[in-house]
Amino acid sequence: xxxxxxxxxxxxxxxxxxxxxxxxxxxxxxxxxxxxxxxxxxxxxxxxxxxxxxxxxxxxxxxxxxxxxxxxxxxxxxxxxxxxxxxxxxxxxxxxxxxxxxxxxxxxxxxxxxxxxxxxxxxxxxxxxxxxxxxxxxxxxxxxxxxxxxxxxxxxxxxxxxxxxxxxxxxxxxxxxxxxxxxxxxxxxxxxxxxxxxxxxxxxxxxxxxxxxxxxxxxxxxxxxxxxxxxxxxxxxxxxxxxxxxxxxxxxxxxxxxxxxxxxxxxxxxxxxxxxxxxxxxxxxxxxxxxxxxxxxxxxxxxxxxxxxxxxxxxxxxxxxxxxxxxxxxxxxxxxxxxxxxxxxxxxxxxxxxxxxxxxxxxxxxxxxxxxxxxxxxx
Length: 379
What we know:
Blueprint: H1 11-17, H2 22-29, E1 34-43, H3 44-56, E2 60-62, E3 74-82, H4 83-92, H5 100-107, E4 119-125, H6 142-152, E5 156-160, H7 173-189, E6 197-201, H8 205-213, E7 218-221, H9 228-236, E8 240-244, H10 262-279, E9 285-288, H11 297-305, E10 317-319, H12 325-330, H13 339-351, E11 356-359, H14 362-377
Parallel strand pairs: 4-5, 4-11, 5-6, 6-7, 7-8, 8-9, 9-10, 10-11
Antiparallel strand pairs: 1-3, 2-3
Helix pairs in contact: 1-2, 4-5, 7-8, 8-9
Catalytic activity: (7,8-dihydropterin-6-yl)methyl diphosphate + 4-aminobenzoate = 7,8-dihydropteroate + diphosphate
EC number: 2.5.1.15
GO cellular component, one term: cytosol
């Protein structure tokens, strides 16, 4: 007998290769992954009930000392268990008091499998003040830049005409539209829509309506659908909406950003904006936690490490950290020298649940992602 430890990314695939019984595969695959769920402000009565119920099925709940004698009325706790454990608890706690019924309804969302194909969103900026100069272009070289991105492996091309870098000043809707019009017509004339999807990085209804009328399919809104008129347009054209989180606005977002709990605060934001989108009839949604948009380095790192949390919404997750200043905060580097750091962040984001990567360097990301996926496909 010989033994070695396996790192399995697709437990079902491996169990099939062992020729296991199909019903057994369904059961065993749910026992293979351990989940850790942080529960904040849990009623002490709920903590005691959940602790006993978890232990009875082989899971566990880490709680502070003094819970058994109800030292504090509300506590924080960590629920540990497999997918199977969470499914059992989601049924078991439905009849329990102290808010456990609500917890039970949410447990399954945190362990359901999400399968979205990986896409690369290339960035092109039709303005002169975007923070990375190599992403800037005008209509004279639009065709060549777009053709190169498609050749390099882009699935989506995101066109922006107004800078959203920290401290940038807004421009008029007419100015933004003037920067976009000729480029949109170039895209249309060259039939690039047949090769990739195009996204508009804008929150201006005037610009958004123009591009959607001319073949664009995605609205990448850094305000997270704040404007009702934008919501109406996205619904009218059945476009995909990228809901991004940003604290305050681009002019002041980096002035001492603060959160009670960044994970919960952004989760609440997404809940509200997804509900709003649905109320307008928008169903095709992507979520973006907004790396660098009103966040400190610590905020950004926490979001990246715990990105999988946001999978419970059931929508694709987009990450865009391309050449951003957080890399410079970790290791001093000019914008032009941050490709390595960008790739490290984006591959970690894919590992933690992202499926759309917004980047300036499409060719390098295509190669890195293909290698990353090849490693993770092996069982």
